[in-house]
Design brief:
The protein is mainly α and 434 residues long. The protein contains twelve helices and no strands.
C-alpha cells in the first residue's frame, strides 16, 4: 500500500542474475524450469486433473472411455478375418441364397441345357441307327453297327466337351461371386462373365487336363495294381493261402492309390480359384495352390470332405423317399401290373428323379466351388495378411463396381523378375493370426 491510502499491486520478486544462481536452482515462489523449457511442479503443489503446459485439454468425463476388442468389419459375405471351421462349412450354403441368379440360377440353367442336349442327341442317334439297322440287309448290318459305335464315341467326346465348358463357367462365376461378395459387392451375371471371360479358355484347358490326367493315372496305376494283386495272391495261394489273400492285397493297393489321389487332389484344389481370381496361368496356379495348402492340408481336406458328406447325405434323404413314394403310387395306379400304366409311371418317376438330381447337382457344384474359394481366402488371410488388404480396399472403394481403374485386391504382389508372390512385411501380417 502507498501512503495515499490506495491499493497497488505488489511488485513481483526479481529473478536473481545467472551469476548469483549458477546451479539453476529456483528461488522461493518461482517454478523450476527444465532444460526443454517445460515448467516442473514444486514440492507441495499438485496439478491433478489439470492440463500441463504443451498438452491439449480434454473435457472431463465421469468414467474413462471403454477400450477393448472390436469385431472385424463384415462388408459382405464373410467377416474380414481368418475364418473358423464352422464358417468354412456354413458360408458355402449361403452363397446361392445371397445372390441366387448368377450362381444357382446359371448352374441350374446349364445343367438343364446339358441334360436336354444330351438326351435329345442320344435319342436321335439311337433312333437313326435303329431305323437303318431294321431296314438294312443282313450283309450291311455290320458296317451300320461299326458306324453306330463310332458315332457313340464322337457323341461322348462332344458331351464331355460340353460338360467341361459348362462346369468351367459355373466354377468361374461362383469363385468370382464369392470373392466379390467378401468385399461387399453383389454383381450380375454379365458383370461376372466380363471378369471371367479373359480366363475362360485357361480354365477350360485346366478342367480338361485334370480329367485327362485322372483317367491316365487311373489306367496306368489301377491296371498294374490289379495285375500285381492277382500275381501276389496267386503266389500266396499256391503256398497254402486262400482267395481271401488276393482280395486283401487288392484292397490294400487300391487304398494306397486312393490315398495318393486324395492327397494330390487336395493340394491342387485351389488351382481353379487361382486361375480365375489372380489371372494366372496353369503352371503358376498349380504351384500357387500347392504352396497355399502347405501346413493346412488336414484342414483343407476335412472341410472339403465334410461339405461333400453333407451334400451326399442331403441328396440321399431327398431322393430315397421320392423313389419309395413313386413305387407305392405305381402299385396303387396299377395293382395288376399293367404294361401301359407301369411304363407311364416309370417315365414320370424317371423325369422327376432327373429334375431332382439336376437341382441337387447344381446346389452341390455351387457349394463345393464356394468352399474352395473360401478356403483360398482363408489361407491367404493367414499367410499373407489378405484381410488387411481387403479392409483397406473396402475403405477406399466401398460401393464401387469393378472397373479398369480400380485395382484387384486379390492380385498377389509378385517379385520384379519372377512369378512367385512377394511375401508381405511382418507389420502388415494379419493380427488375427497372432
Amino acid at each position: 500500500m502507498s501512503d495515499n491510502g490506495q491499493w497497488t499491486a505488489p511488485e513481483s520478486p526479481q529473478q536473481p542474475p545467472s551469476d548469483q544462481n549458477p546451479q539453476g536452482q529456483a528461488s522461493f515462489g518461482q517454478p523450476q524450469t527444465s532444460p526443454q523449457g517445460y515448467p516442473q511442479p514444486q514440492y507441495g503443489q499438485h496439478n491433478y486433473g489439470q492440463p500441463q503446459y504443451g498438452q491439449p485439454s480434454y473435457p472431463q468425463q465421469p468414467y474413462p472411455a471403454p477400450t477393448g476388442w472390436a469385431p472385424p468389419p463384415q462388408p459382405g459375405l464373410i467377416p474380414l478375418r481368418p475364418l473358423s471351421f464352422g464358417a468354412l462349412l456354413g458360408v458355402p450354403f449361403k452363397v446361392f441364397r445371397r445372390n441366387p441368379r448368377p450362381t444357382l440360377g446359371v448352374a441350374l440353367l446349364l445343367q438343364i441345357g446339358q441334360a436336354i442336349f444330351s438326351g435329345l442327341a442320344l435319342a436321335g442317334l439311337i433312333w437313326f441307327f435303329y431305323l437303318r439297322f431294321e431296314s438294312a440287309y443282313s450283309e450291311d448290318r455290320n458296317p451300320i453297327i461299326a458306324g453306330a459305335i463310332a458315332s457313340a464315341i464322337v457323341f461322348g467326346i462332344l458331351q464331355s466337351a460340353f460338360s467341361i465348358a459348362t462346369s468351367s463357367i459355373v466354377q468361374g462365376v461362383v469363385s468370382l461371386d464369392v470373392t466379390q461378395g467378401a468385399i461387399g459387392r453383389k454383381l450380375k451375371f454379365s458383370q461376372l462373365w466380363k471378369l471371367l471371360r479373359p480366363r475362360f479358355w485357361t480354365l477350360v484347358l485346366w478342367t480338361f487336363l485334370a480329367g485327362a490326367v485322372l483317367l491316365a493315372v487311373a489306367a496306368v496305376i489301377i491296371v498294374p495294381v490289379v495285375l500285381l494283386a492277382i500275381w501276389a495272391g496267386t503266389a500266396l495261394a499256391s503256398a497254402g493261402g486262400t482267395i481271401a489273400i488276393i482280395v486283401l492285397v487288392g484292397l490294400l493297393l487300391f487304398a494306397l492309390f486312393m490315398a495318393l489321389a486324395v492327397w494330390i487332389g487336395t493340394k491342387l484344389s485351389l488351382v481353379t480359384v487361382c486361375i480365375v481370381v489372380e489371372n494366372r496361368g496353369i503352371r503358376e496356379s498349380v504351384s500357387r495352390s500347392w504352396k497355399l495348402t502347405n501346413g493346412y492340408f488336414w484342414k483343407t481336406f476335412g472341410t472339403l470332405a465334410l461339405v461333400n458328406i453333407i451334400i451326399s447325405t442331403a441328396s440321399n434323404i431327398i431322393t430315397t423317399p421320392i423313389s419309395f413314394v413313386f413305387g407305392i403310387f405305381s402299385n396303387l395306379v396299377s395293382p395288376t401290373g399293367g404294361v401301359s400304366s407301369t411304363v407311364i409311371t416309370s417315365i414320370v418317376l424317371y423325369l422327376v428323379l432327373i429334375a431332382v438330381t439336376l437341382v441337387l447337382s447344381s446346389i452341390s457344384t455351387v457349394a463345393i466351388t464356394a468352399c474352395y474359394t473360401l478356403i483360398y481366402i482363408d489361407l491367404r488371410m493367414r499367410k499373407e495378411g489378405l484381410d488387411i488388404e481387403l479392409i483397406r480396399f473396402t475403405e477406399a472403394f466401398s460401393g464401387t463396381e469393378p472397373a479398369d481403374g480400380i485395382p484387384n485386391p486379390y492380385h498377389a504382389r509378385r517379385a520384379p523378375g519372377g512369378a512367385q508372390p512377394q511375401p508381405m512385411p511382418p507389420a502388415a501380417s494379419s493380427p488375427w493370426n497372432r
